[in-house]
Design goal:
Length: 333
């Protein structure tokens, strides 16, 4: 939308692609992350693991992310018209980026936690870093750093007039793109590239260790468990790379084109469409995180089944719902 001052870029696809995809992300993200929070917070558990702390914070970040989508859905459906005022414009842009970057940073924390557990399971320093206290400290640090990192968005994002229509600039207005450009690169490097390198390095190291242990295992049972762990690690890595990588590459390319060759309307149109098309893909990561959380653990899948059993009231006798846990059955009211 900020390109209308220079080039008549094509924006009709946004009235269909973004509202539909954001609406789907909103519904799925709200349900899945709400379920994850219920399983980790509302159930009375005796103790919290470090992974639960990280995943709870990740679910909160994803939940806040999807809650910022409804104004964007309405605005995109109305052709970028922004009827909500300047304060909500700044707030939506801030929370959109804040929780996107929190998600990447918490995924980096989870990857480091798992890396230490797999590659250095008995090293004293690694064991100390995997405690609940360290997880709480790391989570607080992530929220603080992400808020500080995204705070300039409150200055750059604002409402403005384009073709006699009030819009909410996603990055900043066209006149300030030269000033915004260094900050945009900062977000790409510090906000995305650093967590990306951490996640890829940790999971690649884990896959190497798990592969070597599986190859040297004589018993079928440990080998099968490690193969499952290996497939989980690979799946998480692929989700992270495919969700976050293309979006940030397209966004960075768009920044360079927007600043260096703003008069090349054809090129600008191509890179802007590419950037906008990848936005829904990065949004779907907030739906994938809860699925990976439940899929990667038998105990968590049992928790989810217990919740579904309670919700659907599958009873074998009045007032009793049976939930299979391991090889035994437990009954609850």
């Amino acid at each position: 939308m900020e390109d209308f001052h220079i080039c008549p870029v094509n924006s009709y696809y946004k009235r269909f692609l973004l509202p539909v995809s954001y609406s789907l992300v909103f519904v799925l993200g709200l349900a899945l992350n709400g379920t994850l929070l219920w399983c980790t917070c509302c159930r009375r558990t005796r103790s919290w693991s470090s992974t639960s702390i990280y995943m709870t914070n990740l679910a909160v970040a994803d939940l806040l992310y999807v809650l910022s989508l409804p104004p964007l859905i309405i605005s995109n459906a109305r052709g970028d018209l922004w009827p909500f005022g300047d304060v909500l414009c700044k707030s939506v842009r801030f929370f959109f980026l804040l929780n996107l970057h929190c998600s990447m940073m918490f995924l980096a924390c989870v990857s480091v936690h798992r890396f230490l557990g797999v590659c250095f399971p008995v090293v004293a320093a690694a064991v100390r870093l995997r405690t609940r206290r360290s997880a709480l400290l790391a989570s607080g640090t992530v929220w603080f750093l992400a808020a500080a990192e995204i705070s300039p968005t409150l200055l750059f994002a604002h409402t403005g007039e384009i073709n006699n229509m009030t819009v909410c600039f996603e990055m900043t207005n066209p006149r300030n793109f030269g000033v915004y450009f260094p900050y945009g690169l900062f977000l790409a490097i510090v906000g995305f590239l650093v967590p990306f390198i951490i996640v890829v390095t940790c999971y690649c190291s884990m896959m190497k260790v798990l592969s070597s242990r599986t190859a040297g295992s004589i018993s079928n049972s440990p080998a099968l468990m490690r193969n499952r762990s290996l497939s989980t690690v690979l799946l998480v890595l692929l989700v992270f790379v495919l969700c976050f990588g293309p979006y940030h590459v397209a966004r960075t390319v768009y920044l360079f084109v927007r600043v260096d060759v703003p008069a090349d309307c054809q090129l600008l149109d191509v890179v802007m469409i590419s950037y906008k098309v990848w936005k829904p893909v990065v949004s779907f990561n907030c739906c994938a995180n809860p699925l990976l959380y439940f899929w990667g653990s038998h105990r968590r899948r049992q928790q989810l089944r217990a919740w579904l059993c309670w919700r659907k009231k599958r009873r074998v006798q009045p007032g009793v719902c049976v939930v299979e846990v391991g090889s035994r059955n437990r009954t609850g009211g």
